[in-house]
Amino acid sequence: MRLLFLNPNTSVSLTERMADAARPVLAPGTELVLATADRGFPYISSRAEADISASIVLEMIAAHEGRVDAVIVAAFGDPGLLAARELFDIPVVGVAEASILTACAVGDRFGIVTFSPVMSTWYLDTVTRAGLTGRFTGVRVPDEPMQGGIDEVQDTLGTRLVDLVEHAVERDRADAVIIGGAPLAGFAAKVRDRASVPMIDPVVAATLYAEMLVRMDLTVPRRGAYARPPGKPSIGLPAALAARIGG
Predict the structure, then answer these.
(1) pLDDT averaged over consecutive 10-residue blocks of the chain (247 residues)?
(2) Most buried of 93, 183, 223, 237, CB within 10 angstroms?
(3) Is 97-202 a domain of CATH 2.30.140.10?
(4) C-alpha dihedral over 204, 36, 68, 99, to 10 degrees?
(5) What region does 88 belong to: left with phi over 0, alpha with psi -120 to 50, or beta?
(6) What is residue 197's predicted lDDT score, i.e. its pLDDT?
(7) What is the pLDDT of residue 124?
(8) Do residues 40 and 10 lie in contact, with contact meaning Cβ atoms separated by under 8 Å?
(9) 176, β-bridge pairs
(10) CA of 213: how far to CAs of 68, 107, 181, 201, 210, in Å?
(11) Taking every pair of C-alpha atoms in the chain, what is the biggest distance, in angstroms?
């Protein structure tokens, strides 16, 4: 099984960090095919950036079509996820959606802890899209500004993030907490013994979901919300994506 591990951010170091979090849970014989966006943003943190990155996600999937069995969109807001499911015939999994569904499997109510308030509204959008706002306790972020770069977040804010997990439990009544944001990949495993509820790593959840969907070998939808739309000519798109849309 080959999983396209698609990072729509332009940071190769983030791709490697997330892949390192995913590799320990891979089933024997599963291979991660790493892909990092060649344009866009070092780190997506707003709706506008996510919408711009969504088209890049489609281009990247089209470039790998026929060579992978499933796709993991490795950015917490899942840019391009729904469009990709509509356009391609293989499973496409978003790390945010996978983590939300996983959290709901281990508790009645879940919260999100992340490192920047800028992303809070965008993260709420992912919960709304999943139809699970009634089980959502909210997003908790540190009051203090981030020090250093995003690659240093786990070191500079680690203790505070663990405290926020407990605040989500004690004050918001969360039964499980999602650790959101690509720079925090692998953090939940490092501090699991310091938390009183399950912490969900979105990358790990998405990897396991992708493997499951490949093994289930579900029928490609021919009707419904994700049936492939009729072919249409286009102008100026990359050849692989234009062929997929026009096919």
Answers:
(1) 97 95 96 97 88 96 97 95 96 97 97 85 87 94 73 80 94 96 92 94 98 95 92 94 93
(2) 93
(3) no
(4) 20
(5) beta
(6) 96
(7) 87
(8) yes
(9) 110
(10) 13, 23, 23, 19, 5
(11) 55
Supply 243's token pair: 């062929």
220 vs 88: CA distance, rounded Å = 9
Would you say the CATH fold of 97-202 matches that of 2-94+205-246?
yes
Domain spans, the chain: 2-94+205-246, 97-202
Q: Is the pTM of this model over 0.90?
A: yes
For 197, residues 6+ apart whose C-beta sits below 8 A from its C-beta are 107, 165, 169, 174, 175, 176, 177
Q: So what's the pLDDT on residue 132?
A: 94
Strands (E) in the chain, as ranges, are 2-7, 31-36, 70-73, 92-94, 110-113, 136-140, 176-179, 199-200
Our CA angle for 234, 223, 246, nearest 5°, is 15
Chain-centroid distance of CA 21 in Å reads: 13
CB 25 within 8 A of CB 5: no
Which helix (H) or strand (E) segment holds residue 204: the answer is helix 202-216
Q: 2-94+205-246 has which fold? A: Rossmann fold (3.40.50)
Give DSSP secondary structure letters for 159-183: HHHHHHHHHHHHTT--SEEEE-SGG
| CA dist list (Å): 123 to 50, 82, 116, 129, 190 | 11, 16, 11, 10, 23
